[in-house]
Amino acid sequence: MKRQQVCVLAAAFACASLSSAAFAADVAPRAPATAQYLAPAPASTWVITIGAEARYLPKFEGADSMIVRPLPIIRVGRAGKEGRFRAPRDGATIALYDTEEFKLGPTFKLRQGRKESDDPANLTGLGDVKWAVEVGAFAEYWPSEWLRTRVEVRQGFGGHHGVVADLTADVIYRATPQLTLSGGPRLSAGTAASFDPYFSVNVQQAALSGLPVYDARGGLRSYGAGAQARYAWTPQWATHMFIEYERLAGDAGNSPLVTQRGSRDQVQMGLGVTYSFNVPGLW
Question: String of b and e for 180-215 (b: at least 16 CB within 10 Å)?
């Protein structure tokens, strides 16, 4: 799928997502004012959220063709007005320090691998890259109930051994007690070791693939924006749809794999379901 087709599909998906969520809000039965959607849990209660997403995303980092992959969702935090908000770029987290304004704790994320067989026309000769597990820490700051800022810094294991950092901000609009719309800017950076497996081309790979030799250094990886619609059918069950756009930049965007065989414009879309439950006094 070419870049123009992806952009058109992304725009259509965004419209469909918001329309579907709005329609659901209109036709679904309204919860009474005393429903659990609005009832705050005790401060000592923790919320565990688990779920899964089907993501439609590039076949490899920098690709202009797409593939569907399943991904897990895991989040642990204290119950509260914003306790169940999660953006698509968030890693799996446990908020060890959790207040109305600040949240801190460990995080981990799976990073997509790459196989020559995924796209033989573009990847033959470049070798396979294993899936990576990225482990680190996150920090959230809520300047207000409608704005969340977040930073994650993670160390990679497996597919890469570098350090990556994601910075995000989300404006949160609660259209109804069940329907939440959100979105905002995204920024990603990393060290050379986190770029190398995905964007560098060594001498052997150049000879086998026909691409020029390229050494990707660290720095800014991408910038972009994302949006999400989430609908809570019950206090426990929710579904969400999202779209994320990023523009590869720096040495990632200048890789010959991207400029000659892919696209700097990267789009992800997804549909997911989550189940949340309360646990009193985890610690």
Answer: bbbbbebbbbbbbebbbbbbbbeeebbeebebeebe
> pLDDT tens across 2-16, in order?
444 444 344 444 434
pLDDT the model gives residue 14: 43
Q: Which residues contact 79 (CB under 8 A, 6 or more apart)?
A: 40, 41, 42, 43, 45, 46, 47, 278
Instruction: Enter the pTM of the model.
Output: 0.80
CA angle 249, 252, 223 (to 5 degrees): 30
- Tell me the fold of 3-30+53-276: Porin (2.40.160)
- CA–CA gap between residue 122 and residue 119 (Å, rounded): 6
Name the band, by pLDDT with cuts 50, 70 and 90, for residue 77: confident
The ranges assigned to domains in the chain are 3-30+53-276
Q: Work out the number of other CB atoms within 10 angstroms of the CB of residue 174.
A: 16
pLDDT of residue 261: 97
Locus of tokens 């990707």: 216
Cβ distance 164 to 137 under 8 Å?
Answer: no
C-alpha 233: how far from its chain's center? Answer: 23
Q: Evaluate whether 232 touches 238 at the Cβ level (below 8 Å).
A: yes
**Nearest residue to 131 (alpha-carbon basis) of 60, 66, 200, 187:** 60
